[in-house]
Amino acid sequence: MRLRLAALLPTLVGLVALLALGSTGFGALSLRQASESLDRVSHEALEPMVHLKALSDAYAVSVVDASHKVRNGGFTWEEGAQALADATGIIDRAWRAVSTMELSPASAGPMADARTRIAAAQRLLADVTIIVRDRDAARLDSLVRERLYPAIDPLTESIGLLLDAQIASSGTLVTAALAEARDDVWVAVALLAAMLALLVGVATIIVLRVTRPITQVTNATRMLAAGRLDATIPHGARADEVGELARAVIVFQGGLQEAEAARTAQAEARTRAEADRAAALQDMAEKVEAETGQAVDLVATQMAAIARDTLAMADTANLVSTESGAVRQAAGEAQANVQTVAAATEELGASIREIVVQVTNTANATRKAATRGQEGRASIEALSREVERIGGVARLIADIAGQTNLLALNATIEAARAGDAGKGFAVVANEVKTLAAQTAKATEDIARQVEEVTRATESTVSVVTEMADAVAEVNGAAGAIAAAMEEQGAATQEIARAIGLASQAAGSVNDGIARVAGQVADTGIRAVQLREGAAAASDAVGGLRGKLVKVVRQSAPEVDRRSAPRFPADMPAQLRLPNGAIRTVTVIDLSLTGCALDAGATLPPVGSTVALQLAQPGTGFSGQALVVGAEGRLRLCFMSLDEAQRAALARIIAIVAAKQAA
């Protein structure tokens, strides 16, 4: 049975800690021994050597050098006295230290010699000091030559022997210290090797039982986190903490698998719901767009039919107006002709009355009968021509009346087609029809009277001819002529009355035609207004269709066919039309795939290709575009843009968006 990690790891850490504590204690003890060895070397060897070297230098260098320099003039007396005083202080301190130190056994002989010889050296130093203080050059010279070296050289020799003995003693101490240090180093190395072996064992145990299993479980957990729910979780059978962790991860894996299965089912259901929703929205958008398009197309067709009918009505009104003018002019001419006929008839009545008077006086003027007969014959022929002319005028009036009746009938039909807007015109057309009927009736009366006048005129011509042929029978036929003249007078009066009625009818026709012309002009104006209203309604319905389709297409992302966002813009641009003409337009909105323009009234047809140029500070765009809509505004779709064109367009859109944000 393996230990649990909670017990194994503290045990291993305790072993490492104990070994480290032992190594540390041994190291501290070794350092203490080394420190004691160094102190002994320093106290027993190095410090005596330092004081001996100072003592030797003070006598051999300072005293000897000061004596020679004062003797030779290299030092003044004051400098020499100061140098000797300094050397005396050094000698006293060094000798006291050496005298009190524990020296090595090998230094006992040289130390005894030094004690004997230092007395002579100290006496020499005292004498030199007194001589320099007294500034006695002769005594100084004698001392240097006779006493200086014999007193100092033996002392320095003894000091050298002491140094050699101390050096040998310090070497022995150092050798012993080094031997102890080597022993300590080997022990430390052994402890270090044991600690390293323990650390390696601990590390191996940790790696094999902790790190590697935890790493494997961690990798398996990462695989689960990455979505690989079928990954194998190791160490699930272990009885320690790693096994518990592995079993917990296995339980977590099962939960993840169940959650993934539920999430997959939910995702599939959501995908189906989104697809159904998108399909429903797409179907709704297409149905709304199709039905809206059909309704708008039907309205546009009806508006176009109304516009065509209105245009036809306006043309008819113009034609009626033109014809009414012609009829009015003809009626005026007819009225003038009728007035002329009336004047001629009046003249005829006067002539007939004159003929009656002449017939009464025929008996008294027989000789003048022949002449008057010829004049009467000429007058009657003229009368016949006038009567014939009256007949032509009557026929002209009849023709005008018939044409007016036809025009009134056409006007009534057009008024019926126009509906409520043509009711007033229908009333006028009925009045014109009535006047045309009255004119036709009056014309028939005139024709009948003209026929009677014609027959009477023919009879008169025969009578006058007979008068010319047989003047002699004038008196006998005077009564018959008088009766005939009375009948002719009555007929002439009837003709005058009929001509008056015809003149009144022609005036009525003229006034009616004038009213018809006015009503026709009003009808033409209303037809133009109706056509403009129909065009405006057609444009409004087309705009409504575009806005409705836009609202439906933008109501949800599933039915929005825009592949790039649009940005509102208000910037000028140059548009090259298919015919090569260049027009300045205003960009309303802009995207990476197309734009909308305010291009004026005349727009290029859908499906045509145009060229668009945009300019902004520091950049510009030029490219081909396809016209995809021309309902109120011109909608373009860019064609085959390269990378440079797309980059330029993106910079312009960024500038436009920045202006809108500001």
Automatic annotation (TrEMBL):
Domain HAMP: residue ranges: 208-261
GO molecular function: cyclic-di-GMP binding; transmembrane signaling receptor activity
The organism of origin for this protein: Falsiroseomonas stagni DSM 19981
Gene Ontology CC annotation, any one: membrane
Keyword Transmembrane attributed: yes
Family, per entry: Belongs to the methyl-accepting chemotaxis (MCP) protein family.
The organism's place on the tree of life at top rank: Bacteria
Residues spanning the membrane: 185-208
UniProt cross-references to SUPFAM superfamilies, sorted A to Z: Methyl-accepting chemotaxis protein (MCP) signaling domain (SSF58104), PilZ domain-like (SSF141371)
One annotated GO biological process: chemotaxis
Record-given protein name: Methyl-accepting chemotaxis sensory transducer with TarH sensor
